[in-house]
Amino acid sequence: MGEKAGTREVINRLVSVLDDEDSTVRSSAWGALVEIGEKAATSEVISRLASALGDQDSDVRNSACEALGTIGDKAVTDEVMNRLVSALCDYNSDDRSGACKALGKMGEKAATNEVMNRLVSALGDKDAAVRSSAREALVEMSEKAAASEVINRLVSAACDEDPGVRGGACYTLGEIGEKAARCEVINRLVSALDDEDSAVRSSACEALGKMGENTATSEVINRLVSALGDEDLDVRDSARYALGEMGEKAATSGVINRLISELDDENANVKWSACYAF
User: What positions does the domain TOG occupy (predicted)?
Assistant: First the structure.
C-alpha cells in the first residue's frame, strides 16, 4: 500500500510492534515503515531506528539502515550518526554495507569529517559489497552539494598506502564524472597510471575515460597510449576504453595507428576493445 497507508494510526501500530519478541515481526515492521516513506519520519520513529541499529538480529539492523536511508537527511541526528559510524566498523559486512548506503542517502548533512574518513577507509574493505556501497555513498554525497569535500578526500585517498583504497578512490572519481575533472584530480589520476598495483592503474585509466573530453590533454593521451603497452591486460583494456571516451581529441595519428595495429592481435578481447575505441 505504501505511502497511502501512512496514517497516524497505522504508523503508531507499526511502532508498537517494533519491540515484538519475534525478530521477523520487528524486521517486517521496519520494512512497512520504509514503504510508507517520509510520512513515517517522526522523531519517535527516528529514535527507534537508531536503537534498532543495535538489535541482536541482523535482518532487523539491515531493515533499520534501509529505513534511515529512505528517510534521508531528516534522519540525521547525533544518535543516528553515532550508531551508523559505529556500524561502519562492525564485524558483520552486511552491517558495514548497510551503514554506507544509509549515510550516502542522507547526503550533505551526513558528510562530516569522521563519516568521510570512514567511507574513504571502507574503499579498501575486504568485502566487495562494502567497497561498492562506500563508493556509491561517496558519489551520492558528491551529488548532494558536498562535491568539493568528497573530491578533495578522494584525491588524497588516491595516495593512500592501501592499494584497495587507492583504486577505490580512482574508481569513485570516475563515477563522479565530469564534475571531478579538475586539474588536481587529473594530475593525481595521471600519477596513478604509474602505480605498482595494476588494479589502481586500471581504475585510473577508467576514471580518465569517464570524465571524457575534459581530461583529453596531450599529456593524458600520451600516457594512455603508453598504458596500451602495460603488462596487465585489464590496464590495457581500460586504456583503450579511456581513449575511446575522449572522442575526437584523442584521434591523433599516433593513437589511430596504435589501435589499428592491435586489430591484428591474437587475443579476441584486445581486438574487440580496439574496435570499441574507434
Answer: 32-251
